[in-house]
Structure to design on (330 residues):
């Protein structure tokens, strides 16, 4: 047998072994990586009962047995903001475009620029949104506790959004 | 009073309210939001013992008592990749620029485009990096278990990077 033929046989054998051991991404096997492709069906409009103005949510990945948090992009058009809400297991946001505002019941409003991150601890009632004159996108990482990741409250008034008492 | 003057006064008032209520990011109170501003000192070069090629890590936020994961951007120049490694508590990556490659010991190489996410379960040995001809940035969310978030192994060879046996 020639050396070339031997290499070809060994390569074919190796390939078949690799393929035989391949597992699809949606298999229950917990020992393989899982790809979550970006897709139009991952996008949804922010529900009017939970947001003021135009908001889009693009889901990135779900929570799993190991990582008790999900990921999503949320994009707010100028002046748009969430309703008041709290997260039972907290939430990190990373601003990826524009400037984010986030207010709490004590009257504070944080201003987070692109590249800044913000941690909202469990149970802290707050809102977040864009500035009045520019769109904003943030990536949110939202903890899940007992199957819940958010408790919604009432809308943010224009006065609250402007930081008025 | 002109409308312009009124807008100027309201804007100044809004700004002063926001500034007066600012809280330092290191406040120990667990009931307040925490801002992690982007800053040059959050960036570090990928250590040569853990990476091939030019890699920059920009830390975003640390793990805390509630959220057992940290966040960072990692940017790989063309052809750059991590060494083999595994995460004791898993890792999500979200590709924010370019195309990410991620290989596992079974010979599979995932290709994740901008906007795609990838979950790497605990203990799965893998590498990730840029394609040969374009830079790539991903946002990583890395679980922490018993104080560790990564176990490093040997470098990825050129043949492994190219998907050759």
């Amino acid at each position: 047998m020639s050396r070339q033929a031997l290499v070809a046989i060994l390569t074919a054998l190796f390939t078949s072994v690799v393929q035989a051991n391949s597992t699809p991404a949606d298999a229950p096997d917990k020992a393989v990586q899982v790809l979550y492709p970006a897709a139009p069906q991952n996008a949804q409009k922010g529900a009017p009962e939970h947001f003021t103005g135009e908001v889009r949510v693009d889901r990135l990945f779900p929570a799993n047995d190991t990582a008790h948090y999900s990921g999503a992009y949320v994009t707010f058009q100028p002046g748009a903001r969430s309703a008041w809400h709290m997260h039972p297991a907290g939430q990190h946001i990373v601003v990826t475009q524009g400037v984010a505002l986030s207010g709490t019941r004590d009257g504070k409003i944080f201003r987070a620029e692109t590249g800044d991150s913000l941690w909202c601890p469990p149970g802290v009632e707050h809102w977040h949104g864009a500035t009045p004159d520019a769109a904003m996108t943030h990536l949110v990482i939202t903890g899940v506790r007992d199957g819940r990741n958010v408790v919604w409250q009432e809308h943010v008034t224009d006065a609250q959004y402007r930081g008025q008492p």
